[in-house]
Amino acid sequence: xxxxxxxxxxxxxxxxxxxxxxxxxxxxxxxxxxxxxxxxxxxxxxxxxxxxxxxxxxxxxxxxxxxxxxxxxxxxxxxxxxxxxxxxxxxxxxxxxxxxxxxxxxxxxxxxxxxxxxxxxxxxxxxxxxxxxxxxxxxxxxxxxxxxxxxxxxxxxxxxxxxxxxxxxxxxxxxxxxxxxxxxxxxxxxxxxxxxxxxxxxxxxxxxxxxxxxxxxxxxxxxxxxxxxxxxxxxxxxxxxxxxxxxxxxxxxxxxxxxxxxxxxxxxxxxxxxxxxxxxxxxxxxxxxxxxxxxxxxxxxxxxxxxxxxxxxxxxxxxxxxxxxxxxxxxxxxxxxxxxxxxxxxxxxxxxxxxxxxxxxxxxxxxxxxxxxxxxxxxxxxxxxxxxxxxxxxxxxxxxxxxxxxxxxxxxxxxxxxxxxxxxxxxxxxxxxxxxxxxxxxxxxxxxxxxxxxxxxxx
Length: 459
What we know:
This protein is α+β, with helices and mostly antiparallel strands. It is 38% helix and 23% strand. It contains 14 helices and 18 strands. A six-stranded mixed beta sheet has the order 8-9-10-11-12-13. A hairpin with a 5-residue loop joins strand 16 and strand 17.
């Protein structure tokens, strides 16, 4: 868990254990100094990367010339090559009849014998510890890359889209063609040291890959290492090994939080930021009370009105339910689930979960701090490194409120999203067989409420 969330968790626990009503939410947040934004401190990242780089350099030196341990190794040698046999080797040779051969004299004699040789091995307690540190460095590099990826200037990160169209309403229509386009790749050019951080991180990643490709790492990582490292003579007195031990003690020991705790704190962060947004928009009822129970922020279900819709918020084990109601005759169920970092390997799992949820919800949205998967169509990015949280929540509520004037005859025949005529009418709503969009007619077909854009595509 990073420092921001550790601080956030401590403050929310202290402030909300007794419960805070929505009428005092702003004062409570201000009193506890709980904020939802912190700019990226590239100097801090640079220091962390330099520190890991120095550790990696020490490990590279260890890999080149590691400590060995002399151990006894049982071998089978030709009888004439073996020196004097130990009592145990003699007994093993006597028992192993496959080593014996009948001579011309008629007597049996051992052709091969069991013996013991002294051999050098790198499989030592200290070297297993170093292999474990290589794993930790790679984990830290991956985390740093995930943290910094959203700040990297790229078209997809900036616009949160994976493509462009060429219609009059296209994204590019807002650009001026008589001069270079601003605001994309130069968005963070004023941040001193950003490029330096990315360069150092790339160098560290290459070092990490090189260490993990070494024979030293491959031979030892499967052996495992105790996380309760004992300071042996080598770890205390060999300068290279001692540097690794001190770094582990100062930076890794006792600092790892469970994944479930990190996910819960991020969920609390999202929930509290959403309640703060509703409060600032004068949408949060005055009788709502937020409490901290067993590591989780909780509240009783409540409703508010925005535009022509009445919204209701409710918690359950899967996430946050957001339900919209149009005049009591048409409802919309949305489920918000949170995941701090959304990696490419998580996409399939999330899509499978969405498929299961669709029997109960018309919209399933993932809220993440770091959308590394770049699955923008199904993900709302809420991060303490972004100032535009209000605009993002505005967009989310607007996505639930897409009600358009319509002609009943035309929209009954074709999907308003993809234009397909292959639609099914079920339970007062229409589902497109081609793209999976869900929509409903309101007020006898005067309006159309598009609830879900493209659950899937069969194009």
